[in-house]
Amino acid sequence: xxxxxxxxxxxxxxxxxxxxxxxxxGGNSSSTASGDNSSNAGSSNTSAFDTSKSLSVITREQGSGxxxxxxxxxxxxxxxxxxxxxxxxxxxxxxxxxxxxxTNVKGNDAAIGYISLGSLNDSxxxxxxxxxxxxxxxxxxxxxKISRPFNIAYKGDLSGVAKDxxxxxxxxxxxxxxSKEGYVSVSENAAYAxxxxxxxxxxxxxxxxxxxxxxxxxxxxxxxxxxxxELQTSDSSAGMQSALEGTCDIGMASRELKDTETALTSTxxxxxxxxxxxxxxxxxxxxxxxxVKAIYTGEAKxxxxxxx
Length: 308
Description:
Blueprint: H1 2-47, E1 56-60, H2 65-74, E2 77-80, E3 83-86, E4 93-95, H3 98-106, E5 111-116, E6 125-126, E7 128-129, H4 136-141, E8 147-154, H5 160-170, H6 172-180, E9 199-206, H7 210-223, E10 227-234, H8 236-245, E11 250-253, E12 265-278, E13 286-287, H9 289-297, H10 304-307
Subcellular location: Cell membrane
InterPro entries: PBP_domain (IPR024370), Phosphate_ABC_transporter (IPR050811)
Family: Belongs to the PstS family.
């Protein structure tokens, strides 16, 4: 009887130990799951977007070629005969340059802006427009509707380094640089076979064209080490004015030339999309052209106005 009792106690003790062990495992498993759920909840909270927030609309400065093209293509620019009126909402935050737009959108989850497609990075999110992704391929095919030309312009005839540099840009070598940087090439010319002259020129204008122009200058100077090219970044209107005044050899514009600039000779060097961007926390994925217009004219006040 004593042996049986001792054996029974040993079995019971072992059972208690095993139950405790299972309880411990269950506790750890529950804790881990709880931790995962907490983490997931946190992630969900981070990605959740409050559509009752007021739209924080970011636009470019007057004179920006990107703004000129954007308002015209989206219908924010109202035309009445020869009269044109930019109806961008009065409470829009106006900033100078592409990077300033990205910075503002990145730092505000209720913000929306627009930038050159070639300047897009992972710090912000590009929206589809009319169910079409903002990509170079869709710009080239014409499916993505918010696109514009990158133009260079000059007064009179080009010579020396200026002419040779333009020949390089339009050659297959220069167009390869443009494609590599995420823009759409426009020329099917042969490879560069220039004279590589010595000299200095100045290229000035659009902050949207400037990034790809910088890459073109770098590539050209590797071929023609005798050339010196100064790049001055401002906006399209300033670039065209500098070309007209002769204070730069080549002006840059991220739009078509205006009637007041027709004394210049213009050449399209690339095509570019204008990406409509939002904060990465914003759950919006697609807008129609009418919704983009409503946002920028002030018809839409809060995000729920366009996410219904």
